[in-house]
Amino acid sequence: MQEETKNSKVVCGYPISIFFIVVNEFCERFSYYGMRAVLVLYFKYFLQWDDDLATSIYHTFVALCYLTPILGAIVADSWLGKFKTIIYLSIVYAIGQVAMAVSAIHDITDSDRDGTPNNMTFHVVLSMVGLFLIALGTGGIKPCVAAFGGDQFDDHQEKQRRTFFSVFYLCINGGSLLSTIITPILRGQTCGIYSQQKCYALAFGVPAALMVVSLVVFIVGSGMYYKAKPEGNIMLSVCKCIGFAIKNRYRHRSKAYPKRKHWMDWAEEKYDRLLIAQIKMVLKVLFLYIPLPMFWTLFDQKGSRWTLQATTMDGNFGQLVIQPDQMQTFNPILILTLVPIMESVVYPLIKKCGFNFTPLKRMTVGMFLAALAFVCAGVVQLQIDKTLPIFPSTSESQLKLLNMGNNQLEVHLPNNFTVHLPPAQIDDLTSKPEEGNNAIRFVNGLATDLNVSTAAVNFGIIEPLTSSNYSLLKSGSQLCEYTIKFGFGSSYTIFIPSTFTFGPNCQESVTEVEEIKPNSVHMALQIPQYFLITAGEVMFSVTGLEFSYSQAPSNMKAVLQAGWLLTVAVGNFIVLIVAEIAKLPKKWAEFFLFASLLVAVCVIFSIMAYFYTYIDPTEIEAQFSQEKDEEDEDEKDKMRKTEEHVTKRGSVKSNDSDNAFKLSKM
């Protein structure tokens, strides 16, 4: 049986329109997190930026994504309404994703067809425009979609509304999980018209296609939606009230005017006392938000610094090879696991032990866990640094010595420095091969030309007593007259001596020289830091939103949501500021610095939390409503007494006029 409600049919107790909204959210989250998963590697390896610039632009983009929701909420509530805002900004969003996909096509400007774009400015500008449009789109629709879904339910469908929000947030984590698994795999493929390179265009193209699907699905359900008209944005009213209070306080700054209990009381001349009381409650919570950006400063680096750290690690898990940007999948997996465990096991157990684990205490512990995660990241980085080769600095030079003979040589260098050079010993390269590739070259010790090729690379003709250029090969097995197993990020020189002869045992005379060892620190060592940061997120973020909503009036939820998103944006800007000011040459030192800063902020927040007094907004609002009702009753009594007094005066005047008439007759 079907029934009508809010212009939408109901199936199994749910408005049919919400199914379009759920699919829309899943596709949009897949699009956003899929693009974001490979973004920092796109900056580093495609646009050829260094780690610091890649990290800075990445966090600037994330910060913009959390600033624009405020704009989206104002536009939706005050002008266009939620439905039109979602449609228009989704179009902007899709255009941005397509621009990112096009910017990653290297063949567009690869005029010499060597696999490297010749006009990098084109790709940089197009990608920056794309990221700006994406930030505007994803941020603008963020506060609208969930609220628009909630609007589809009638008041008597409270249970169905709660189920919808659970499914809605499940779609967010599901889209995030799948996209961070799939898009790194797509990035690892090779594609191109003239030359085969890492396929960032495909890694961005699939999220772009999902965003288009998201938009189409949402539009298809247009006729079934309940579309509430914009009723004005509470944030504008709050800002105007606060602005008037500040302005009025400044006008009456003279000592001649009596002081008031709270500076917001200076708005009483223009605004309702209930609104002022509600703003006071919100400001009390927003004050606690001041230290919170530091948590997001650390948390969002899992998509930048931690991903870059994973590129110098071994991702071989036996039958499964993990890409560096796929390590981020541990976050949504752990969220889906830890949230029910925390709610049903950990928190009730702590309560049974008699410990009052208040929301603010949970948030403090969450911040401390995030700091511990960065301590773990610093320890892992120390282990990685031990395996990295030492390269010459800008003030040093590198000397390459090659012994083409069969016997060891003793070489005397200035400052009484002696080197014993084994046969076929080579030491070259100025940086470690990136993206887990292996740098391979051949040295020809024969008196004739040698043609060398592998299944992946053709080294071409190598002249006598010369070497080929380095070529990058993926991890795995490459057949070159003999089999060699490559790891991640290594460098080899394969030496073919003058005694080499073709035959069934020719591989015995070929010598391989390992110049740079493959990545030996396993990516599994990152799992503890991902576990700690996710546990911190569950205790900090989930609890923080719950606490904020419990401490604010019902009509001020949007203000707190805007304040919460603002802390995320500020946190990402702090990454830029700290990294730019500190400029630490060692990454482990930077990890420890961020951990120390969060511990310091954690102490400050715990002190603020200790002096915080929990309130019941509903009770306070009820008191104001009761006082207002009493004031209204008093006002009515005054008006009633005034009317009675006027009536009595009228009757007295009437008697006086009658007496005067009688006297005049006499």
Automatic annotation (TrEMBL):
GO cellular component term, pick one: apical plasma membrane
The main place the protein resides is membrane
This protein's source sits in the domain of life called Eukaryota
Comp. bias regions, Basic and acidic residues: 636-647
Q: Which stretches are transmembrane?
A: 30-47, 59-80, 86-108, 120-141, 167-187, 199-226, 281-299, 330-350, 362-384, 558-579, 591-612
| Catalytic activity from the UniProt record | glycyl-L-aspartate(out) + 2 H(+)(out) = glycyl-L-aspartate(in) + 2 H(+)(in); L-phenylalanyl-L-phenylalanine(out) + H(+)(out) = L-phenylalanyl-L-phenylalanine(in) + H(+)(in); L-leucyl-L-proline(out) + H(+)(out) = L-leucyl-L-proline(in) + H(+)(in); L-alanyl-L-prolylglycine(out) + H(+)(out) = L-alanyl-L-prolylglycine(in) + H(+)(in)
**Record's bilayer topology term:** Multi-pass membrane protein
Q: Could you tell me the Gene Ontology terms of the biological process aspect for this record?
A: oligopeptide transport; protein transport
User: By its UniProt entry, which SUPFAM superfamilies does this protein fall under?
Assistant: MFS general substrate transporter (SSF103473)
What UniProt keywords are attached to this protein's entry? Cell membrane, Glycoprotein, Membrane, Peptide transport, Protein transport, Symport, Transmembrane, Transmembrane helix, Transport
Matching InterPro entries = MFS_trans_sf, POT_fam, PTR2_symporter_CS
Look up keyword Transmembrane helix and say if it applies.
yes
PROSITE patterns assigned: PTR2_1, PTR2_2
Localization per record: Apical cell membrane; Cell membrane; Membrane
Region described as Disordered: 624-666
Q: Which GO terms describe its molecular function?
A: symporter activity
Assigned protein family: Belongs to the major facilitator superfamily. Proton-dependent oligopeptide transporter (POT/PTR) (TC 2.A.17) family.
The entry's function note states: Electrogenic proton-coupled amino-acid transporter that transports oligopeptides of 2 to 4 amino acids with a preference for dipeptides. Transports neutral and monovalently charged peptides with a proton to peptide stoichiometry of 1:1 or 2:1. Primarily responsible for the absorption of dietary di- and tripeptides from the small intestinal lumen. Mediates transepithelial transport of muramyl and N-formylated bacterial dipeptides contributing to recognition of pathogenic bacteria by the mucosal immune system.
In its UniProt entry, what is this protein called?
A: Solute carrier family 15 member 1
Lineage of the species this protein comes from:
Eukaryota, Metazoa, Chordata, Craniata, Vertebrata
